[in-house]
Amino acid sequence: MFHKMRNFKRELPKEEVMELLKNGEYGILSTVGGDGYPYGIPVNYVYADNKIGFHCAPDAGHKLENIKFNSRVCFTVVGDTEILPSKFSTKYESAVVFGTVHEAEDKKKILELLVDKYSSQFKKEGMEYISRSAGKTGVYVIEIEHVTGKGRR
User: Fold this and answer.
1) How far apart are CA 71 and CA 108, in angstroms?
2) Angstrom distance (rounded) from CA 79 to CA 34
3) What is the CATH number of the domain that holds 47?
4) Number of folded domains that form the chain
5) Which structural domain, as residue segments, surrounds residue 39?
6) What is the pLDDT of residue 7?
7) d(CA 20, CA 5)
8) 123 to each of 43, 98, 128, how far by Cα in Å?
9) Which contiguous run of DSSP H or E holds residue 153?
């Protein structure tokens, strides 16, 4: 079902792929809607327990319309990059996740992990923010079915 990497010499070891998912700044969530068009949108996320968690509007928007139509998604994280002008190339590292997405069972846990990742120096304020807004926030989880990583270093 999933393609083998064509340029297998660039394939990253599984441990490095998981580190990239853990430490990436943001990812691109790609969905497909009922109109057949793909839709990719950058999102803040957290990687934990072999899942990707993210937040969004609770009940509307292009992303959620597409997820309701088709829960299969692709999620891409790009790590460090460096343009190599004289070599007409780029150093890079990336991870690509395939999986299915659904509403999180433990919304608060995902939101706390997001605060820890992006605003750890404001943990107390983050927890207060979660208490005030968790009911107005959609929280979703990608169940990872397949993941690959590729890099040129």
Assistant:
1) 22
2) 31
3) 2.30.110.10
4) 1
5) 8-152
6) 75
7) 18
8) 20, 31, 9
9) none
